[in-house]
Amino acid sequence: MIEVIRFILDGLFYGSILYLVASGLTLIFGVANILNLAHGAFYMLGAYVAAILIKLMIGTPYTVIAFPLAAVIVGLTGIAIERGFIKWIYEKDYTYQLLLTFGLSLVLSDAVRITFGTEPMYVTKLYAHAGAIDVLGNPYPVYNLIVIGLAFLIGCLLWLMMSKTRVGKVIRACALDREMSEGIGINTSRVFALAFFIGTALAGISGALVVPQSAAMLGIDADALIQSFIVIVIGGVGSMKGALIGSLIIGLIRAFGIALFPEIELAIAYLVMAIVLLVRPQGLFGREYRAA
Amino acid sequence: MRVMSEEAKISRRKFIAGTVAATIAGIVVGAGGTYAAFAGARAPEKTVTTTVTKTVTTTVTAASPTITPTGAIPSGPIKLGVITIFTGPGAMLFDPGFKALEIEVEKINAQGGILGRKIELVVKDSGGKPDVCVDHFKRLVTEEKVDYITVGATSAEACAIAPVVEESNVLTIIQEGTATKLFEEVDTSPKYVFRIANYDALDAISHAIAIHQAWPDAKKFAVIGADYVWGHDEWNIITTVLKKLVPDMEIVAEAWPPLFSTDYSAHISKVLAAKPDVVELCLWGGDLVTCIKQGTGYGLFKQCRVSSVTGGEYVWGVGMECPDGILCSTRYYFLYPPWDRWHINKEFNEEFHRRYPDVHGGYPGFNCNSAYTVIHALKLAIEKAYTMTGRWPETEEIIATMENLMIPTPGGYRYFRKEDHQMLGYAISGFTKVSAEYGFAILDPVWAVPPEEMAPPPGKKWKEWVESW
Amino acid sequence: MKAKIGWTTNRLHSFAGITISLVALFCIPLLGSSYYDFLFSLALIYSMWALGYNFLLGYTGLLSFGHGAFFGLGAYTVAILVTKFSFKPFLPVIGIAVLATAFLGAVIGYLCVRYTEVYFALLTLAFSMFFYALVFKLYYWTGGSDGIGIRPPDLFGLRFSAIEYPAHYYYITLAFFLISVYIGWRIVNSPFGKALQAIRDNPLKAEAIGIPVRRYKWYAFIISTAYSGLAGALYAPLFGHVVPDLFHFLFAGEVLFATLLGGYTIFLGPIVGGIVFTVAKRYITAVTIYWPLVLGALLVAVTLFFPQGIVGTTYSLLRRKIGIKGGE
What we know:
The structure holds 3 protein chains of 3 kinds. By secondary structure, chain A is mainly alpha-helical. In chain A, about 75% of the residues lie in helices and about 5% in strands. Chain A has a domain at about 15-220. A two-stranded antiparallel ribbon of chain A has the order 1-2. The longest helix of chain A is centred in the first third of the chain and has 31 residues, at about 1-30. Chain A starts with a helix and ends in a 13-residue tail after the last helix. Chain B contains 15 helices and 15 strands. Residues about 1-10 and about 15-65 of chain B have low confidence and may be disordered. The two termini of chain B are about 45 Å apart. Chain B is globular, with a radius of gyration of 22 Å. Chain B is α/β, with parallel strands linked by helices. Chain B has 2 domains: about 5-30 and about 200-330 and about 425-465, Response regulator (Rossmann fold); about 45-200 and about 340-420, Rossmann fold, CATH 3.40.50. In chain B, α2 (about 90-110) runs parallel beside α12. Chain C has a single domain (about 1-320), classed as ABC transporter involved in vitamin B12 uptake, BtuC (Orthogonal Bundle), CATH 1.10.3470. Chain C has helices at about 10-25, 35-55, 65-85, 90-110, 115-135, 140, 165-190, 190-200, 205-210, 215-240, 250-260, 270-285, 290-305, 310-320, and strands at about 150, 155, 160, 240. Chain C is built from 14 helices and 4 strands. Chain C starts with 10 loop residues before the first helix and ends in a 7-residue tail after the last helix. In chain C, the strands form 2 sheets. A two-stranded antiparallel sheet of chain C has the order 1-4. A two-stranded antiparallel ribbon of chain C has the order 2-3. The model of chain C has no long low-confidence stretch (mean pLDDT about 85). Classes of the chains: A mainly alpha, B alpha/beta, C mainly alpha. The interface of A and B includes residues 122, 143 and 214 of A.
């Protein structure tokens, strides 16, 4: 019984990180119709930036600011990339966006390596100081619980923004029908930039939250990207609700899979992705899809 | 070497006979000295807390004394091709090694180089990809026409490049590339390929021996290992050795996270549930650090004893939060041999720390020791061959010298084996203990397992050898 | 992707061009250094790979991230046959590799071609990564991350190592190259090829005039995987070693880049692209440790400013300036 609680918490934790990065990807796709292959690179950037900031601020009570600050920095980088490169291909064929974002992912990853070096960046004191609490007789790290709570909070904020604020409504309008929105006077170009800011900032904070309990390293970008793909396929490309449900499903399957069926961990995720694409390509909550 | 002078050409047989005689003498002296120096460092059977006590003063200068050449030496610099990894996740291993190589080359050049010829490095990045590595090698040989090559390679790259090296007749020294099967299967009678580092099987065998020496009463073992060839192979070897040493041992749990995973919570939970005596962490790099960090959150270190086959190299990353008492092994540890008794190690560490206080925790790791060994082994072999022939030696003559070479390195004496061109050195094990002086956990107490105890004789596969104990 | 395929009406120009290129290709080994034999064998392999890939991208309008997996499949088939089963005859081994890849391509393609655009790309990516995970994990059979070293195959009974005889290997690769280019040219200019272009330009219209869209897409997929399998099969003995990274979607990015670089609007494009990409990549990795940055920047630049690739842009310029190569 104790183990089951622990697996559920582990699944929630992993799902929380996934939710943050995948929701960013799906937001950008939903609004601007761009599948951002450089999304993993933003995640990695967020991790490194947070590592540096935390190292600078550790010991002071301002350390928590490192996380939202890292997110903002990554978001601004996202806008820069969008204005500089991506906006040129909005009207063009889908192949261009894939090619461009693919090239940008190479450039960004290497830029991160050149800036921050090849060694992993470790951050100490934060994870350990959060300590562990007793869950049915066994210790469980408090940091994981904080992350779950944060992801929940951010999810709520996103939902509030999307459904209640004017900005959110404008974003949703653009996502639903770009031409119509332009027609009623919405500056879609600015909306796209905003979507990129929020989307990449989400990737950034996801990467940042991972750092205290592991490290900022090279190579985490490809992994984050693939995992995000799997989540948004299951949840539905373009749907925020789908990203949430999808990441929870993947998180829990993974936690229980490790315990019960350890052999298949890696391959099974891709297989599930393929099966979902074949059986129900719009995922759980995506837009209706007409097959070719 | 391309240069071949007609005068002072000694017959090959005499040359090899002279080399063998000299090196046998050298091995006898060296072995005696080594034994004297490290006999006290054997793992204590029961009391694991005593530290090494025998003091032997060995004053060996950091670089070999320069020999003033008198015979025919070509005038240009020596072109040494270097293929290593600067990009991708493998870079964290090889980048510090390259820095150490640069330091040593600078030092040697400052003292005049090898027999008066400076060393010029031609550096390429393979990114860890075997096809790029092979491509660079071919290019270095045919286009850039380097004299010798050293490769900082992953296991896959080493296996890919060995057949190509043998066809190309260029002396190539692989620094890591520690796949056990390199000399057991891929290249069974190497001619131009040499390897510096203790290979994976040696790490595993010595680690298993250390586990048994440290915790002879342990019976239930579990593993959290990286889910790829290395992780599985190491665990396989460790358990085979343990089964020989502890016949009633059992494996109670196994967890295999993917390489470069960031979340080990589920794996730790799974292993804890089985209540093992010892948990082995077959992980390296950021994976190991992450797992240790997360493990503390789950109380892993309070409930079980923990060991890690190459942990000594990476625990600095956990910083002051590292739990004490983790049994870590490694191929080279910066504090061993202790600096007050092994001058080379002291100088090596101080120079590295002075230049790169932020790289690899500020102190060199086993890649750095391998890099040091590569260039000094080459230098020593060339100089020795020169004293035999009286002129710049040809590649085959350097190879013959190298095959019987013993050389002092920061990590102690190491020597090449003639039959399979594999260099052997001590494997280090120790318990972690947080040190305020260094800002991370060091290994204290620390001891060495000598090659004779852990290395299968050349030609024998590790499995046959262990089974025959 | 509205650019049409342009082919010259000036036969003399094209005949001269082809002859010169052929002579140049035949003379490569005469350059002396065995490195060039090796490099250009690789270049031709990439050309074949890109040529097949362009059946999907340029002619059918489908962008796949999975063709690294088919390349890898061809390569691993050769590796396993020669090394684990000791089945050495060179030509049959290549043949089996191509057939096996095409077969798997048929199965996967059947599933994938029901989708378009981004979903197609994601699906091919998923399958590719699934095979990557499988090859990585089943290390007992596939060597896992260490890969498989390939013993040299036999050609007509004699041990034929690409390392020992690079010039011979180059000519064999050249022979395969010429054959596959010829076959590709015939396919492109057949009614089937024209139908593919119609599908790319307007699938609904194509359906309306009676083209079996989904079936033809499937055929195009199979053809592209056969080419990928051939390229992979020839790659294996050349390098002597295969690793699971071939199945990763990042490796598929290489053929995508090569095709784009040459120009996916023209038949000649991917062929030129394969050669240029190989030589450029080798050169860039040799001179700088910032090669991912340079390659990525190159891809961005080509996408934004020269989307028609080298050949496509050259044709456009020539058409405007000289006006000889007419015909839209």
